[in-house]
Automatic annotation (TrEMBL):
PANTHER family, per database record: DIAMINE N-ACETYLTRANSFERASE, GH14572P-RELATED
Species for this entry: Microbacterium algihabitans
Pfam families in UniProt: Acetyltransf_1
Protein name: GNAT family N-acetyltransferase
Cross-referenced InterPro entries: Acyl_CoA_acyltransferase (IPR016181), Diverse_Substrate_AcTransf (IPR051016), GNAT_dom (IPR000182)
Enzyme Commission identifier(s): 2.3.1.-
Enzyme class: transferase
Gene Ontology MF annotations: acyltransferase activity
UniProt keyword list: Acyltransferase, Transferase
Domain N-acetyltransferase: 8-165
Amino acid sequence: MTDLRDGAVLRPARPGDEGGILACIQALADYEREPDAVDNTAAMLAATLFGDDPRAFAFVVEGPDGGIRAIAIWFLTYSTWTGRHGIWLEDLYVHEQYRANGYGVALLAALATECVDKGYSRLEWTVLDWNEPAIGFYRALGAEAMEEWTTRRVTGEALTALAARG
């Protein structure tokens, strides 16, 4: 646990945080202009983050009132080139009224510490190309754009059709 400004603490997520985490996920979807895209539920988050075999993890910033102010949700990747794991940051979100308190930096620093402590070779994520405030924030922390790489995704009917080819 790390003490932050105004009595907030950064800590690993724990059972009971699902509602606050889900509120951050929905707020992020709203910000990214996809308000109807979230199918996740508190029960699904509980199973994913706290079940018998967790495959995703989260850090939260909790305010002195017990409310979740910010989240970082992540999972492990593997690089065949380095032969080591890395961290993929799926979501980083700080509620608007708590921005400029250092929470984003603290969450990314916690992930970087996780990488360094466990010998992971990378910390990676994506950012929407129109999200200039986030891009500037990440650039200031030394994050480099992977201009030559583009993300590809298969979902819905295309995913079902691809599976049928096997």
